[in-house]
Amino acid sequence: MNAIQVKEGIYWVGALDWHLRNFHGYTTNRGATYNAYLIIDEKVALIDAVKAPFSKELLERISSVIDPSKIDYIISNHVEMDHSGALPAMAKACPNATIVTSAPSGVKGLTAHYGQLNYMPVKSGSTLSLGKRTLSFVATPMLHWPDNMITWCPEEKLLFSNDAFGQHYCTNTRFDDDSDFCETMQEAKKYYANIIMCYGKQAAGAWKTVKELAPEMIAPSHGVIWRSHVDDILDGYEKWSTHEPETGALVVFDSMWHSTETMAQTIAEAFTGQGVPVKLYDLKQSHLSDIIVNLLDCKYVAVGSPTLNNNMLPTVAAFLCYMKGLSPKNRRAFSFGSYGWGGQANAQIDEELKKCGFELCLDTLKIQYIPSEEQLKEIDEKIKSLD
Question: Is 114 one of the annotated active-site residues of the chain?
């Protein structure tokens, strides 16, 4: 377990989690990394820790460069346990280290998790001299917990960005230019959609702050380090945090006897005929976290379900609950579905779409039993009427 040099005197000493496939209900099909960074100066600082089961890996990587007991400061940018879980092990291995965290939320959160350790609270704008290098702390509350902060090293133009700009992406390469760029950006987009989107306002503020800092390198707490594609990830965050998709349609459904599925396919074809890019998902086949990525690009959201026991199907209810929790904004939406007698699902979907803050751009598309060719043509015409 060896450290990897990031810059002269700065090392990646994190952990690789090749086998992780689920993170709070978000599928991590390419695993994850828990990134930690060691800065060796007149004072030695460790930026973040790792998930508790990987404490040994963290200590081995640090030990390949320096005796862990020589660490003076451990910077805890975020309380969440995939970043802080190794702190008790580090406190034993580094008995003289001071744990630097945000005031007051970081101290409160770490104390609740690990008891009283040697904490040093810092506020936004506080600085810490390591010798030739300085660390400056910028609070980024609710990106995505109240305690979050980022750490800036101006002498190196290096930003330790914590969860911002990260990806759940495990690879044996540590830098963006050593990795598949398309994969990296897709995982960064998925990370944003499933973890950061509900804090879009805070993400926009962080983007502005980082843009002004003009970093040459961004070292997040998950995934690869940005050094050749810094502008690309900053442009991505600028676009995603505006909540203003220009086009695109997301059609999501579940079906019992294919009638609602037929309606979904007709809706998708109608959008395609209008030159609108479409993503069509059957909730029986696709995971919520993979579907939701497409919401970043889609102006229209169509959600369909038949009626089962006076309700929408549970898969559709779960999707709507998941989507609502991520607080997307500025979408146009409508419901659709086939029914046998009650037909309550359509109104329930409409209500949930309203709770998302979406504009209902069409009256619900509701067909009893099996849709006829004439009814499908009517659906096509209604989609064509959308501006």
Answer: no
